[in-house]
């Protein structure tokens, strides 16, 4: 049977969590963990006993105070919101997301809060947005390398919108140039999954309906397993390399 933890042991465990935690009563910090102290640029022993609002950026204090007073008064205000924490030593603003719960213990009411530093999340989101922008700004080329032969190098990650745009471009190129052969070079694909394998197979099938023989070049073992389960890929030939595929398209179909 598990041994019940004493309150001091629980607080000791919570103290090392990578998420900022605090307990407040009447606007004064009664307890916080190391991560909260890091955000506030203040040792834990100095933070405890001080006003919580001192760890809020001045431009956000009126907003946070208003939310606190209305919550304590019993008004239906959101229990989570975003603002900037203030580093007491440097004045650094850190964007945070705070969730707070009121806990009644006897005659006292405590605010128990969880604070998440949004800096890393926003940096990651910006990186993803930048990556998407680069992909949108660098459309996959459809290369005419010989009379009636098109080569399409698939490089990077293909989300649903990107593969849809690519398929539209390929089919338009086949129709416009009356291509007789299409080589999809999948050597540079990243993170291929069942959806992408099915999309690639459908693109190949659509190319055949327009009269173009389709070959896949550079299929990895992982992609091969995914394509094997796709009915649309049953009639699609493949080659180990782009060079092999070029040799094959010159052979009688």
From TrEMBL:
Chain ranges of the STAS domain: 139-249
InterPro entries from the UniProt entry: Bact_StressResp_Reg, PAS, PAS-like_dom_sf, PAS_4, STAS_dom, STAS_dom_sf
Top-rank taxon, per record: Bacteria
SUPFAM superfamilies named among the record's database cross-references: PYP-like sensor domain (PAS domain), SpoIIaa-like
CDD domains linked: PAS (cd00130), STAS_RsbR_RsbS_like (cd07041)
Gene3D superfamilies xrefs: PAS domain, STAS domain
Protein name from the UniProt record: PAS domain S-box protein
């Amino acid at each position: 049977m598990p041994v019940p933890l004493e309150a001091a042991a629980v607080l000791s465990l919570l103290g090392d969590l990578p998420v900022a935690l605090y307990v407040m009563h009447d606007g004064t910090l009664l307890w916080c963990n190391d991560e909260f102290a890091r955000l506030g640029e203040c040792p834990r022993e100095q933070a405890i006993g001080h006003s919580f609002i001192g760890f809020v950026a001045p431009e956000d204090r009126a907003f946070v105070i208003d939310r606190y007073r209305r919550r304590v008064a019993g008004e239906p205000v959101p229990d989570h919101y975003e603002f900037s924490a203030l580093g007491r030593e440097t004045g650094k603003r850190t964007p945070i997301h705070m969730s707070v719960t009121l806990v009644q213990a006897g005659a006292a009411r405590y605010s128990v809060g969880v604070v998440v530093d949004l800096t890393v999340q926003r940096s990651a989101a910006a990186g993803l947005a930048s990556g998407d922008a680069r992909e949108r700004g660098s459309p996959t080329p459809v290369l005419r390398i010989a009379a009636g032969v098109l080569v399409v190098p698939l490089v990077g990650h293909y989300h649903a919108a990107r593969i849809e745009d690519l398929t539209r471009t390929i089919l338009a190129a086949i129709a416009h140039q009356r291509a007789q052969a299409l080589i999809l070079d999948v050597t540079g694909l990243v993170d291929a999954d069942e959806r992408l394998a099915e999309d690639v197979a459908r693109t190949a099938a659509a190319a055949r309906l327009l009269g173009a023989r389709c070959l896949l070049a550079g299929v990895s073992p992982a992609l091969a397993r995914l394509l094997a389960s796709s009915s649309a890929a049953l009639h699609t030939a493949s080659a180990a390399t782009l060079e092999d595929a070029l040799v094959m398209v010159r052979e009688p179909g």
